[in-house]
Design brief:
- With 256 residues, the protein is an alpha+beta fold.
- Among the domains are: 83 residues, 2-Layer Sandwich (Ribosomal Protein S8, Chain: A, domain 1), CATH 3.30.1370; 96 residues, Ribosomal Protein S8, Chain: A, domain 1, CATH 3.30.1370.
- It contains 8 helices and 8 strands.
- It has a 3-stranded antiparallel sheet with strand order 3-5-4, covered by helices on one side. A 3-stranded antiparallel sheet has the order 6-8-7. Strands 1-2 form a two-stranded antiparallel ribbon.
- It is elongated.
- About 6% of the residues have low confidence.
Length: 256
């Protein structure tokens, strides 16, 4: 009997290929050729961070618990901001000394700093490593706003045992008018000689801002300078204060 011929106008049907399983493998294994289980592990491969780490507690031979090492995860960075107001009479010195002010804050403390609306804004970033960097930066800018030189204020960033103490003349004795002016004159001295003598003897820095007095230095050094200034406010002659400062300076030299 002759084989049936295809009808005119209809496509000829072709025989579909038959999938023959490979010897030793099942039909399902053909779809798992790219699966990780069939790929040989590389001995030099570095384990990825996504692999499961054994976090269970194990007991060693002495009965002590042994924990798996903690995973190193980057904690979220907390951004903190401080604003230091600048008095109007210190804005011009701030603008003139700005090239010397921001490098220690940015390079040494890794802070972000900007000057805006008569304030200096400080902000931490992901590069800030010191937890006390923001406080040190604030103390540095605050010292400059009080009237200290940039070189003296930078010492606050490098040393941890420096402080700033502020008090007014009226805290020691209530003086008004010419009496207040004479007290300020006794502290400053002619051409600032008395103030310089107090600074050199006590190893501090003193700023006279009208009736306010700012002292920068160590704890004991601030105490020495404050005692000398209080004596001048109470009316002691500068010669007597000089003698006391010489005694204190000689004792400090022997101590160190």
């Amino acid at each position: 009997m002759p084989a049936p011929t295809a009808l005119i106008g209809q496509p000829e049907k072709r025989a579909e290929p038959v999938n023959v399983p490979l010897p030793g493998n099942s039909q399902e294994d053909d779809f798992l050729l790219d699966a990780p289980s069939n790929i040989l592990p590389d001995a030099n491969a570095i384990p990825s961070a996504t692999q499961d780490v054994d976090t269970e507690m194990h007991i060693d031979e002495e009965g002590r618990p042994r924990f798996a090492p903690a995973k190193h995860t980057d904690a979220p960075t907390r951004v903190e901001t401080r604003k230091v107001p600048i008095p109007p009479h210190r804005m011009t010195p701030l603008k003139a000394s700005w090239p010397k002010i921001y490098p220690p804050l940015v390079e040494h403390l890794q802070l972000q700093v900007r000057m805006k609306n008569r304030t200096v804004e400080l902000r931490t970033s992901k590069y800030t490593t010191d937890t006390g960097a923001l406080q040190k930066g604030e103390d540095f800018v605050k010292a400059f706003s009080l009237g200290f030189d940039v070189d003296d204020a930078i010492a606050l960033l490098r040393l941890d045992d420096l402080y700033i103490e502020t008090f007014e003349i009226k805290d020691v004795k209530t003086l008004q008018g010419e009496h207040l002016g004479r007290a300020i004159g006794r502290i400053a001295g002619k051409d600032g000689k008395t103030k310089f003598a107090i600074e050199n003897a006590s190893r501090t820095r003193v700023v006279l801002a009208d009736s306010k007095i700012h002292i920068l230095g160590g704890f004991k050094n601030i105490h020495i300078a404050r005692e000398a200034i209080v004596s001048l406010i109470l009316g002691s002659p500068p010669g007597k204060v000089y003698g006391n400062l010489r005694t204190v300076a000689s004792r400090m030299k022997e101590r160190f």
